[in-house]
Amino acid sequence: MFSIIKSLWLVFLHLFRKKATIQYPEEKAYLAPRYRGRIVLSRDPDGEERCVACYLCAAACPVECISLDAAEREDGRRYPGFFRINFSRCIYCGFCEEACPTYAIQLIPDFEMGEYNRQNLVYEKEDLLIDGEGKYHGYNFYKVAGLALGNKAKGEAQNESPPVDPKSLMP
Amino acid sequence: MATLHIDGKTYEADPSKNLLEAALSAGLDLPYFCWHPALGSVGACRQCAVRQYRDENDKNGQIVMACMVPVTDGARISIADPEATEFRSSVVEWLMTNHPHDCPVCDEGGECHLQDMTVMTGHCSRSFRFKKRTFENQYLGPFLNHEMNRCIQCYRCVRFYNDYAGGHDLGAFASHNHVYFGRHEEGVLESEFSGNLAEVCPTGVFTDKTLKGHYSRKWDMQSAPSICNHCSVGCNTIASSRYGAVRRILNRYHHDINGYFLCDRGRYGYEHGNHPDRPSRPRLRSTKQSGLEPETTEVLAAIGSFLNEARGIAAIGSPRASLESNYALQALAGREAFSIGIAEASSAVLDALVAALREAPGGPASVRDIEHSDAVFVLGEDPSNTAPRIALALRQSVRQVSIKHAAAHRIPRWHDRAVRDLAQGRKGPLHSAWPAQTRLDEISKSAFCESPNAIAKLGFAVAQCIGEDSSSSSSADSPLQKQAKAIAADLLEAEQPLVVTGTALESEAIIDAARAVVSALAKAGKSTVRLAGIAAEANSIGAHLLQGQALESIVAKVMNGECDTLIVAENDLYRRLPHATVDALLDKLSKLIVIDCIPSSLTRHADAFLPAATIAESDGSLINCEGRGQRFFQALSPKENLHATWDWVGRIQVECQRSDTNPWPDLDTILAKMAADCPELAGIREAAPGAGFRIHNQKIPRSPRRFSGRTSILAHESVHEPKPPEDKDAAMSFSMEGSALQPPAALVSHYWSPGWNSAQALNKFQEEVGGPNRGGPPGLRLFPGGQNGRPHGSPSTESAATPDQLLAIPLYQVFGSDELSNHSAAVRERSEPLAFSLSAKTADRLGLADGDSLSLRIGEQKLTATVRLDPVMSENLIGIPVGLSDTPVTYLPLPAQANVCE
Questions:
Q1: Neighbours of B563 (CB within 10 A)
Q2: pTM to 2 decimal places
C-alpha cells in the first residue's frame, strides 16, 4: 500500500521536472563527438585521401558490409579504386574505425540516414569521402611510413635517417 | 626414431633433423626466420632459441639455436622457458628497430612471416627511440617489387637466389646494420626463378609486382588448387581471385613435383586470362556486319545448325587443353575425325616419348627423383627453357655429391653452410647435349653442342659404352667416342643415375637413344636408373593417350571433301601448320567453329566463336610429363558467357540433337564417360576427390574464414545479396562456408593455420616438415614403368647438312616460347625479340657480325632477324627461337635445312 502511494507521489513530482523529450527534428539532441553514426572517409592535412586501401576495415567488419579495391597512383600512392559500404547491413559498431591505421574511416555523430528504398543505403566512395580531417587532426600516414612517394623520398619521413649508401663500408 | 622431450612431453623425432624441424613437425610453434625447409639452416637470425638440458638432473641448461642442434635420442629442451621466451622476444624487438611503419601499404601484410613471428614471440612495443635507417629501392624488372627498408637481414633471398637457384645478380652489400640485398645496379633480375623471392622473403622486401597492380589481401582472395599449364612439368599452384579476376599464382606444395618453388613463367603467366583483348563473348560471323552481339543461345543454335547441315565434322583439340576438353571433342567428332592438334612429325616424337616413359624402370622420374640423382645425362633438352622447374631440380642434383661427402664427415644435410663449405664448389656430374648454349652449362661437367643427329649418336654411343667394358680407352677413339666413354663412366659410378630427354628437338632418335642408355644401365646392374621426359605442353602426354589422328590427316579429310565443318578448341592452327596449309584449309571449309580463351590468329576466321574459360576458371585434368594425372579446379566462377571447352561441347551436343540433355552436365560425369571409353585413363578419377566428397557433411571453402565484403561486393547492383554460385563439379564452395578441417592435399586452396597467416603455415599441411603432403601427394601416376612395347631404335644415318647449307634447329625461351604466358604482360616484357643464334665461325663464313640482319628461307617460308653469336654452337647450325608471338612466321617445321637469302 505504501509503495503504491510512494510511486504516485514520485510520478506527481516529475510533473515539475525539466522535460527530457525534445521536439525532434526541429530541435536536435546533443551527440558526443565520439558518437558512432554515419561513416565517412576523411582526408589528411594536405587534402589527399587518407585511405590507403589496406583492407583492414573490411576484414574487421563483423557484418562484412565494406568492400573496396586497391588502385595505385602514378607516384605509388595507393588509394581505394572503389569503396562501398552497405549501410543497410552496417551495425555501427565502429570496428572499422578502430582497425583503420590511417584515421581514414571515421564514425561521425549523424544518424539521419533514413531511406524509403534500401538500395539508397549503399554508399559509394563519392558519398563517403569528406573534404576535412574529421575527428583526428594533423595525422598524415605517409609522413610516418617508410614508403617513398612522389614528393617524399626515402629518409624524409618522421624519425628516419637519410638513405644508406650500400656501396660504402664506413660505419 | 629418437625420443625428444620438449617441455616435459615426449615426442618421436627423426635423428637426421634438427631441433627446430622436430619441434615444428611435432606441431609446436617455434619462431624462425633464416631457416627454410628447402634451404636448410645457417643460424643467422637467432630467433629459434630454446633451452637445452643435458639430462633430467640438469636444472640450468643452456640457450641454443634449435635450427643448429641435431636431434639426439633423449634430448631435453624447453620452448616455454622464460629466458628463452624473453630471448626470442628481444630478437624480434631488435629486428624491428628499423622496420618501417608500412604494414597498411605493404603487400605482405596479412600473410607476413615477420608479423606472425612478432605476435608469436609476444613483442608489442619497441623501446628503441632513435632514427630508423633507410635504403633506396631498385627496379628489379616486371616480376618483383623491391622495398629494402623492410629487410630483417635473414639472408634467405641470396641463399635461395644464388645458392639454390644458381643466380648471379643478387647479392648482399655493405656491412653492419647497413646490409643491403639487391643487384649491383638497378635492372631486371635475370634468374627465371626470381619470383620465388616473394615467397621466400619472410617480410615485404620482395613482393609480387603483378599482384601490386591489382592488389588484394590474402584473406580476401577466393582460391582453388590449380595446375600450372605453361609447361609439361605440371607444378601445383594456388590460383587466387578477387572481384572476378585472377590476382596471383602461389606455389602449392607437392612433395614429388614442385616442392616449395615455381618458375616465373608459371607464377606470372596467369595474366593471359586478364588480357585486355581476351574474347569474352560468343560471336557469329553473320552478325559481325550488323555490329550486334549475339546471345549465347543464338550462337549455340547456329553451331547446332552448322553441324547438322555439315557433310562431315572434324574436331581438333589441343595439348594445352584439359583431358576432358579433348575427350569431349573426340566424342563429338568420333575417333577417326579427331586430332589432338599436333603435326604428324611431332606426334611421332611424342609417341616415342610416351613409349620411353612407359618403359622407364620404376616409372618416369619425378622432379624429386631428379633432385636426388647423383649423375645426370640430359639428352637433347634445354630444361632451363622448356621445363624450368626440372632445371632447378638438376641444379640440386649436382649437389648430391657434396651432401654425401658431408654425410661421410657426419655433417647433416640441413647444416647448409657447412655442407657447402666442405664441398668447396665440387659438383656432381651433369652432362648435357643440346645444340646451343644453355644456362645449365655453368654447372655441367660437359656440354655436347652438336646437331640433333649427332646428339642421338652420342646417346647410342653412351649406351654402347655402358654395355661394353668402358675402362679400355684406345687412342683411336673419336672425340664423340671419348665423350661417350666419360659420360658412361660417370653414369655407371653413380648410385642413382638419371637420363633426361624430351621432344624439344623433334627427334625420335634422341628419345630412342635415351631409352637405350637407360636399358643399358639397367642391364649393367644399375637398377636405380631413372628416366625423365619433357613434353612440349601441359597436357601433351594426356592428349596423346586419347589416340587422336595427326593434324595432317584432318587436313586431308577436309581437302578431299570428306569433312567441311571443323571445330577447333584452344588451338591456334597457325602455330601448328604452315600458313599456306592453314589458309588453304580455311578456304576449303564451309564452317569453322573456334573455342579459345586467348585472342589467336585463328579466331578471326571463325564462323562461330565460343569463349573458353582459362585454367583458373575451369575444372579438368592434365597429365604431366611424369605421367601423373592431376586435377585443377575453378578459382572463380567465371562470367556468364565463359565455360570450359568440355562444357561448351556438351551444350553443342544438345544443340545438334545428338543428345536430349547435356551428356556431361558435370565433371564427374565426363570423367566416368572418359574412363569407360579410354580404360587407360580410368585412373584419372582417383586424382582428386569427386564432387560428392564432404567433411562432416560440409564442402571445403574456397575462401579463408576472414573473407570480407560479402554483403557489399555486389550491393551496387542489388542490395539483396545473391546466393553464392553452386559448384556441381567440385567438393568446394564459392564462399568461406564449409569445413574448417584440413582437406585432402588435392583440395587445399590456401595455407593457413592459427598463428600462421603466411605461406609458412604449410608446415602444418605436411606429414613432417619438408615431407610428403598430409594424406599423400595428390595426383595419380599412370605409368608404373617397365612396360615394354617399342623396339629399340638405332642412330639415323641421315647425313649432316652440306657445308653451304645451314641446319635450322629450334631454340626455346622460357619467356616467349609458351603461347599462353605470351599473353601475360609481365612475361611478355621479359621475352626477347627474334634473333638467330649461330657460331662465330658460321657468321664469319656468311660475312656477318653480332647484331647484323639475316634472311633465311626454310621450306616455303622466309624469315628475317638479327644475328646473335653463340659461343658453343657448332658450325652450320642456326638456332631459331620458336613459339614467339611477335614474328610473322609462327610455325616452322624445325629442324630443317635453311638457305641464306641474298
A1: 23
A2: 0.94
